[in-house]
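Q: Got a minute? One more chain.
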Amino acid sequence: MYDVEEYKISKNELIDLLKSLLKFNKENEWIEFKVNNDDPHMIGEYISALSNSAALWNKEHAYLVYGIDNKTRNIIGTNFDFYNTKKGNEPLYNWIYRKLKPQIEFEAYEVEYENKSILIIEIDKAKNYPVEFDKVAYIRVGEQKHKLCDYKEKEKKLWNQLNKISFEDEIAISKLNKNDIVELLEVTAYYKLLDLPYPDTIDKLIEDFLSEGFVKKVYGKLAITNLGAILFAKNIHQFRTISRKTIRLIQYKSKNKLETIREINYDKGYALCFEEILKNLDLLTPQNEHIGVAFRSQIKMYPEIALRELIANAVIHQDFTIQGASILIELFSDRLEILNPGSPLINIDRFIDHNPISRNEKLASIMRRFNMCEEKGSGIDKTIKSIELFQLPAPNFIEYDSGTKVILYEYKKLSEMSKEDKIRACYQHACLQYVSNEKMTNETLRTRFNIEKKNSAIASRLLADAVLSGVIKEYQPNSESRKYKSYLPYWA
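A: Always. Here it is, folded:
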């Protein structure tokens, strides 16, 4: 099995990298040359400054190079042994890494060049936030290192640049060749999902993946982006940036978590495991023999389109920057819960009518092209419509801590639903009618709950409760006509 941790950059690649850095006439904001200065604080400050400057200049990496005279570019050599140097009793690498916030990756490489020892420290660019060392952020101004707070204009530009960088475009693994791409990614899936012919040459395949943003060229080598990895990884754990983003499905025996029947971890990219998740849910979900008026034979508890859309939404809208958290699907005997990291970007009351705002627009776009979910803005509408067709309790959208949870409930008779269930269903029905350019009435609500016409008073009481709770309002409340009274969501 190909393992990202086992990758070792070759001597020739290091020499080529060094030559490319030496081509610059002078130090710049993302390259610094030293000879033997091994002061730990200085190194930490330079890592902060170079990382922030790399982000500002849209470079994937910055470099701190030992053994080169910074004025003449002469090859001097160095005796600085980075990995065997300590700060107190702690290895220097660990000490610096611990004091960086947010913590970024940096790695030191040793290479012999012109019979001299050279040390190259490769530093990842800042992501999401400026990198601080010992609670201070630094930046390069020309060839000099300064505190970021002293250069407000550069600080503003850096934040603007950081806000432009999406998780999808960032590098998951770099320094790859063409065969590595095929080894790490299930490339055939892309062509199958789009019903395209598989390319005749690997060069054409790489060209396709470069154009889609699944792969990038970085310093003459290939790199897989987070987008490419999260979609097509043969094993997500081979990519450090997404190793904790596997989707988990847990089935419990009853209504609580006391006894687990099974747990499935999907270690492949989302494009590879999405249909498998739906298939497993179909196998694990019990059937209902009778659901309202829509179905009178055995049918699955939850509509397939609702499962598809809600899981796709969890994938698309998750916050990948929240470490240690991933999508969790929990199947209880009476409900299904889907959790994703990341607070919703819009008010949960407006999920039905509001155009979705995605944290991961490229991921959303490609999943729509793969027909894994509906066109933008229609998924939740169709989910609620299918729930109403099955006459299930209204799904519950909940914001918690730094996450979002959606709960689907098993079929209940109207008499078995709580008051909260009924009011939530009234509200969602009003929203669904509104986005369909219609209005909720006693009649449409009776259809929603399968209430016979002779029992229209029941629907009237439900509407009154929903109005009193503030989730809906009367349309033209001053109208004298009661027979044709209609209702709107509170925000309409």
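A: The chain has three domains: 4-165, 171-242, 245-349+359-375.
Q: Perfect, thanks.
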